[in-house]
TrEMBL record:
<keyword id="KW-0663">Pyridoxal phosphate</keyword>
<dbReference type="InterPro" id="IPR004450">
    <property type="entry name" value="Thr_synthase-like"/>
</dbReference>
<protein>
    <recommendedName>
        <fullName>Threonine synthase</fullName>
        <ecNumber>4.2.3.1</ecNumber>
    </recommendedName>
</protein>
<keyword id="KW-0456">Lyase</keyword>
<comment type="similarity">
    <text>Belongs to the threonine synthase family.</text>
</comment>
<feature type="domain" description="Threonine synthase N-terminal">
    <location>
        <begin position="3"/>
        <end position="77"/>
    </location>
</feature>
<dbReference type="GO" id="GO:0005737">
    <property type="term" value="C:cytoplasm"/>
</dbReference>
<feature type="domain" description="Tryptophan synthase beta chain-like PALP">
    <location>
        <begin position="96"/>
        <end position="407"/>
    </location>
</feature>
<feature type="modified residue" description="N6-(pyridoxal phosphate)lysine">
    <location>
        <position position="109"/>
    </location>
</feature>
<dbReference type="GO" id="GO:0009088">
    <property type="term" value="P:threonine biosynthetic process"/>
</dbReference>
<dbReference type="InterPro" id="IPR036052">
    <property type="entry name" value="TrpB-like_PALP_sf"/>
</dbReference>
<dbReference type="InterPro" id="IPR029144">
    <property type="entry name" value="Thr_synth_N"/>
</dbReference>
<dbReference type="GO" id="GO:0004795">
    <property type="term" value="F:threonine synthase activity"/>
</dbReference>
<dbReference type="InterPro" id="IPR037158">
    <property type="entry name" value="Thr_synth_N_sf"/>
</dbReference>
<dbReference type="Pfam" id="PF14821">
    <property type="entry name" value="Thr_synth_N"/>
</dbReference>
<dbReference type="InterPro" id="IPR001926">
    <property type="entry name" value="TrpB-like_PALP"/>
</dbReference>
<dbReference type="Pfam" id="PF00291">
    <property type="entry name" value="PALP"/>
</dbReference>
């Protein structure tokens, strides 16, 4: 089982090395060339638990022993999620909602980031590397907290998280600023998410910086969804939700279903494509964007162009103009043509734009559909679904739900991926339903609970009473200096 860089066929690593390294040296992402050669046996998985399905999926992506895989999955999820099925499926009138937010930080990123540290820990033992791992992460709000929780006090790892100072919600910021753990550091930057992500990406290809770290016995890795160890766990819930529908006789085995995915960095929806490649019967993967609809434009025209204003929306975790994981899809769609991908990514870097061939676009359209919703539509959808189904959507899930409503399909069941608890974005959710009088997020959290009776997740309940431990704010140019300075604290 060998991973290679999307941009260079000669850069090959085994699964452990790919997980530990995160990103290829020249900037490419690690991919399995023969993805889909081995398929899941879906029939055998009917009626199995989340854990068992996860083990079956993981066996297709890592060369760990069955015992190691089982241990990783157990330690990642057992007792850590508030629902015993990990990702329960809820039936509404027009669709099914796949709740991915029952983990320790109430966002879907917990699913990937609970397992990644276990995969990292196991990978370290397999490559017999004596260095410790430093996880560097840029976040639009949810990844950061989920990564911090996942790696908190995990042996031989340290983690530093950078977030845009004005680009995350109050709850998200408070979650990160109150982070505990002796190996954690959190810092805000003046800039947006793309600035933070580009800054981190540059450090990953900065040889001098890496040499300096190595002299302190530290190697870099990433918890962003560019890390394959983060992506693989996300494949699991696509399979689990499908099997759920089979199990409850909503569909027959081999019936195709649609998945509607609120999308930012293209990690979540790419995991759906991986699920399809390993044998899941998928009709369409529907990519839902907010007003930063660079992906909608790309999936409908074949032109990716990030030269546009970066807009702040009520779904901030999707405020992204460079969707890193699209590169992996382009690699597969182009027939694993590394040179072609290297050229597209060079265009993107130099001009902020690339255009794929008509043939590539047609192949993408075979599997993908796209739509987007603005803030007003998002808030209207929260209200409409609350009134129609008595179900409370968060803003990101509402973007997806609006796109579903625009693309209703009577032939196939549709599953909407719900990526956050409504309480993570309380102000926007509350004001979609009720009048506000300038109350703070934490007051609104309690009011939202009083009005709707939806339970507040435990990790958010007393957040405002926790001690603020991380207050640093820096310019985006100073990330490297900051890291080298602060490393000694961890
Ligand atoms: C990260 C995130 C997304 C976007 O997921 P990608 O994998 O980056 O496409 C959507 N919704 C929420 C709540 C998120 O945290």
């Amino acid at each position: 089982m060998i991973y290679e860089s999307t941009r260079d066929i000669n850069r090959k690593l085994n699964p452990s090395e790919a997980i530990l390294q995160g990103l290829s040296e020249e900037g490419g992402l690690f991919v399995l060339r023969d993805l889909g050669k081995n398929k899941l046996n879906l029939e055998k998985l009917i009626g199995k638990s989340y854990y068992e399905v996860a083990e079956a999926v993981l066996r297709l992506f890592v060369d760990f022993s069955d015992e190691e895989i089982k241990k990783c999955v157990e330690e990642a999820y057992r007792g850590k999620f508030s629902h015993e099925n990990i990702t329960p499926l809820v039936g509404l009138k027009d669709s099914y909602v796949l709740e991915l937010f029952n983990g320790p930080t109430s966002a879907f990123k917990d699913v990937g980031l609970s397992l990644l540290p276990q995969l990292t820990k196991t990978a370290l033992t397999k490559v017999e590397d004596k260095n410790d791992i430093l996880i560097l992460t840029a976040t639009s709000g949810d990844t950061g907290k989920a990564a911090l929780e996942g790696f908190k006090d995990v042996d031989r790892t340290k983690i530093m998280v950078f977030y845009p100072n004005d680009g995350v919600s109050t709850v998200q910021k408070t979650q990160m600023q109150t982070q505990e753990g002796k190996n954690t550091k959190v810092c805000a930057i003046h800039g947006n998410f793309d600035d933070a992500q580009s800054g981190i990406k540059e450090l990953f290809v900065d040889e001098e910086f890496k040499k300096e770290l190595l002299s302190k016995n530290i190697k870099l890795s990433s918890a962003n969804s560019i890390n394959i160890g983060r992506l693989i766990p996300q494949v699991v819930y696509y399979v689990v939700s499908y099997l759920d529908l089979v199990n409850t006789n909503k569909i027959k085995l081999n019936d195709k279903v649609n998945f509607v995915v609120p999308t930012g960095n293209f990690g979540n929806i790419l995991a759906g494509y991986y699920a399809e490649q390993i044998g899941l019967p998928v009709n369409k993967l529907i990519c839902a964007s907010n007003n930063n609809n660079v992906l909608y434009d790309f999936l409908t025209t074949g032109v990716y162009d990030k030269n546009r204003d970066f807009l702040k929306t009520v779904s901030p975790s999707m405020d992204i103009l460079i969707s890193s994981n699209l590169e992996r899809l382009l690699y597969y769609i182009s027939g694993c043509d590394n040179a072609y991908i290297a050229k597209l990514m060079k265009d993107l870097k130099e001009t902020g734009r690339f255009e794929v061939t008509g043939e590539v676009l047609d192949k993408i359209k075979d599997k993908f559909q796209a739509g987007f919703a603005d803030d007003e539509q998002t808030k209207e959808t929260i209200k409409a679904i609350y009134e129609k189904d008595n179900y409370l959507l968060d803003t990101h899930t509402a973007v997806a739900y609006k796109v579903l409503l625009d693309n209703l399909d009577n032939e196939h069941a549709s599953i909407v991926l719900s990526t956050a608890s409504p309480y993570k974005f309380t102000e926007s959710v509350y004001s979609s339903l009720f009048e506000t009088q300038g109350e703070d997020e934490f007051t609104l959290m309690n009011k939202l609970h009083e009005q709707t009776k939806v339970v507040i997740p435990e990790n958010l309940r007393d957040l405002d009473k926790k001690e603020i431990r991380h207050k640093d704010v820096i310019n985006k140019e100073d990330m490297k200096k900051y890291i080298l300075e602060k490393l000694g604290d961890l």
